[in-house]
Amino acid sequence: MVFLTIEQEFFNQYRLMYRPFINLVNVQLEKYQLFSSQWALLRLLMDKGPHTFVDIANFMFIEKPSVTRLVQKLVELGYVETVAGRDKREKLVQLTANGEEIVQEIKSQLKPFFEQALAGVSERDIEIATKVLANICANINR
What we know:
This protein is mainly alpha-helical. It has helices at about 5-30, 35-50, 55-60, 65-75, 95-115, 125-140; strands spanning about 50, 80-85, 90-95.
């Protein structure tokens, strides 16, 4: 019989949760022609305002060409637009009015899914898990 260390079990449970979670979120996003990575960008812009391509790449831990593809798709859908930044070389990505409406609609659609996923988990446990995951992320990205 193989016994996992507590660390191995932690990451195993995370892995077992992550893929099914992303797959179910993607199903919810299908009708908007979105995937979870595009949804993450829309949420960033809604929560924190316009961002440069470089800022988005850093926030999402992806390369700038990947950001360009993400943004192009969202521009095609009419959810975001690019505008001039502080200097002519810098472009900012921001939500359109339609994008803001879509974000609100998706948030309300996802709320029951998140509530179901977190059923039986106390608010305190959610706060602790959030801090733990943030610490692990910081450790990995040092």
